[in-house]
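PROTEIN DATA CARD
Card holder: DUF814 domain-containing protein
Chain length: 527
Origin: Hymenobacter taeanensis
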Amino acid sequence: MHTNYYFLRQLAPALTHHLAGYSVVTCFSQEKDELVVGLTNGSQEFWLKAHLAAAGPMLSLPESFHRARQNSVDLLPELLGQVVTRVETWYHDRVLQVHFASRATLLFKLYSTRPNAVFRAAPEASAELFHQRYTADAELHSAPAVADATEVASSSTNPLKAYPGLGDLALAYLRTRGYDPAPIETKWELVREVVQELEQPAAFYITRLDARTRLSLLPVGEVEHTLPATDPIGALRRFVPLLLNRRAYEAELRQLRQTLEKRADEAATSAQHARRRLHALENTAGYRQTADLLMAHLSQIPAGATQVEVVDFYQDNQPRIIKLKPTETPQRTAQNLYRKAKNQQLETRELSARAERRETEALWSLERLEELDSLSTGDLRALRQWRKQHGLDPATVAKVAQELPFKVFEDSGFTILVGRNAQNNDLLTQRYAHKDDLWLHAKDVTGSHVVIRHRAGYPVPGPVLERAAQLAAWYSRRKNDSLCPVTYTPKKFVRKPKGAIAGQVVVERENVLLVVPANPYERSGVA
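Structure generated from the sequence above:
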């Protein structure tokens, strides 16, 4: 209701009393949809800030304001030096108009759609629009003629049409007094009583209604603060910072919920895929079984055969056809199958470990969601401390990417850097990596150096390490392998020998992680 006619009706005379004789000394914008006007009477300053975004126009009166040194643009040069005479509002409209001694005007149209500010250096001068795309606002001059409510009443069976500036808070208040089922005469009586309360409010109320923080002239909803009706400027100064804080809190809370829900969903899906693949491997004839059958039936396989039918003693002695390569001996085929069986065992262990890791990550995310629900107190500082504690800071990929000449990924609060070529690998490992950063590389093949930036007091989580290892495998010669061993170690155990070629290093102490080559961040649009 802070942009509602009835509040502006209280605010306008208070501004007139406070600002008469003040002159404009600055007018600028340093954020999108923002217009800031600074005034002074020679000894005191007064700031008026209009946020003219269609998503929610707002007028605030900060007690002080510090202009930024950058990204600040001067506006309306003819407004400077203008001396305020009075401030008025338009009847049943969300418009506040400042009049100056020179007959110039500055009009704030605070509509929930198409808000704007309109300046005229003189009544006959052309309008200067803050939002120039709303060209129709150039026709706004002065307050329109006041409509007669009794005349509207005589031709209407809806009392609300006689008072179009009432707004949703007044309607909610009317409903608490039995408005909807009341006969038409009672409705008129209720509306007139409420209008009288709005025109002569007992107090201003900061209230919560339908999960929104509102400034009201009526005691409706969950009243949190009651402020004196004699000080609309003070009420606005109390309300706006609280509203902005809660909007920021709700936006960050919503972003955190989305992040955790997405992480839980992706982890659960990944675990499900790993379990499904694991089940398929464990419940189908494996490479070792096929190799055993070939070795057991060597005497039955003629040279150059393309297939052989054998008795499968693993499957209740059922007949089974095994395809062969005519250019390869059965012994060689069996040898290759035994090698694949060894890799299959490694894949089975890796799938089992991955499923457990991803299930743990999904459970962690769900537990954090439960914590988040219990944390929902409206305290923005506490929310940010909790977010930082759990490594859930907003991604800073774009900023870091501009600063660093590497591929950059952000995961759970950890920054992952990937070298682009041999020379870039040297730059990453020798100049940018700290001794406590975690260094990764696909084992025994050429590929990108990968670094997980160290965070003091926060060990690298297993899922983050796994995804970084997948990147190391993906950006290597093993990209198309089904599985890839990846070396990882603190960067302090990586050194470059004298005379070594670009990108070549020696690892003095290492651990190895087996992963499927992939870029797990592709779905996020990061390449």
